[in-house]
Design goal:
5 helices; mainly alpha; 87% helix
Amino acid sequence: MIISFLTLHILSAVIWVGGMFFAHQMVRPSVGALDAPARLTLWRNIFARFFNWAWAAIVLLLVTGFGMESHGIKGLHVIIMESLGIIMMLAFAHLFFSPWKRFRIAVDGGDFPVAAVQLNKIRRIVEFNLLLGLIVVAVGATGRYWG
């Protein structure tokens, strides 16, 4: 059971954190030259797909994380991962229900100046979550060897 939980946990983290890294470090610089309507519409389509995967990853991270804890997995690294993970989830929920909602409405309505402001808010939250996510990955990969 632990191996199944751990496998799903790792894959969920890879999807969420890797998706943020790809969006921020590869897609963002690559679409900068596009005109605003094309760039913002592209982001709207990317986020619509990615956020479904992010929600699935979050659910699996919670289920598998608490599942492993219920089977005796513990330690300082688990507390750190869990704490940072909850902060990430709360930040993502804010992103999804606030700037993403306003961004989506603005793009769909052709209000690209408002969409650009919301995209910048999304970018800052993604940067925050990406930093935390990379820390969580490092802690998860090394924590059992801390002592």
